[in-house]
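Hi C.,

You asked whether I'd gotten around to modeling the 176-residue construct. I have! Everything is below, sequence then structure, no commentary in between.
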Amino acid sequence: MKPSESGAKRQLQPPELWGQVTNAIRMRASQDQVLWSISGIFMAANAVLLVALFQGGKLPESFAPRIVIPLVGTILSTIQYCLQGRAFGHVGRLDELIRKLESALDFDHRYAVSVRINTSDADRYLSGRRENVLRRLFIMGTFFHTRTLMQGASFGAALLWLATLAFFVLRIAAGT
């Protein structure tokens, strides 16, 4: 939407705001689906590469698999990390847009989709349960978000593949 010649922007009316909220919620759900699909596909690819690396239950003896498989794993995990970052950026942007639109509509917070507006339901159904489970499992008071865990897993996978590549390069250089 372009500002008028006077520089003033046209304000959306409530029916238009409702339409925008609906669009933003649909786009948010779509991005969430993309994010989980990305994670599932890349984790499956990492599993296939891991199986290929240990075919027959032992490390490969030839040069090519020792280098190619960890190199491909490193590249795939790095791509996964980057794609997740982009998808998380869109999810965050859309969450904020939903919050702004719902705030502009100024209705009872108990019916808001945004967890920043409907904090009572968010605290009741999300934070409390996950935080208690994590405290029991890890004996820590911090709260881990799924976003952090997903990106941490892909970053960790990239580091592990890179360490595997370094291990094989060093073994080849040593002649073993």
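If it helps when you're writing up: The first helix runs from residue 14 to 53.

Thanks,
B.
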